[in-house]
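This section describes the prediction task in plain terms. A model, or a person checking by hand, is given the sequence of a single protein chain and must write out its three-dimensional structure as a string of tokens. No templates, partner chains or ligands are provided. The sample shown here is typical of the held-out split.
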Amino acid sequence: MVKAQSQDFHSFKFDIGLGYALPSNGSGTQAGATFTLQPHYRLSDGFALGFRMEAAAIGYKNSLTGDVKVSALASGCLSGEFYLSNKGFRPFIGAGIGEFDQETASGNTNNNNDNNNGVTVSGRTTNFGGYPVIGFEAGHFRMSVEYDFTGNGNNYAAFKIGTFFGGGSKK
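The expected answer:
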């Protein structure tokens, strides 16, 4: 049962998270990292409305061709999270929608004399995107998995751990 107001938990909370970003496109070695700040307001004990600010860097290296690409993404998304329990272990599901900005640098690491190993930087692009998220909170520890649809083809899965300030139990 969802109560009309947050009665068992403090209304305001602020998440900080770090994670591994796994790009869904590109060939060869893929890796990335994310950093997230997310203030929330609990409309009830079971539902929180927030604003996620995230920075992610994802990269690809194809050892066969020598192609290297690094993309820097920043997003600002409205978010909602529905908590499945009011106990100490609180699994949740949620989603967010908003703006994703991206800049990309690409180059080639092969030492050919054809002048193709210079670095090219793309212009900044802004797209509308979103993400579903699933995770849990225990005490002030937070763990989540999400998939970011960036609107520009650089979609990625993010595996995060973090903490939050405020928002804990009133008891």
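For orientation: The mean pLDDT is 89.
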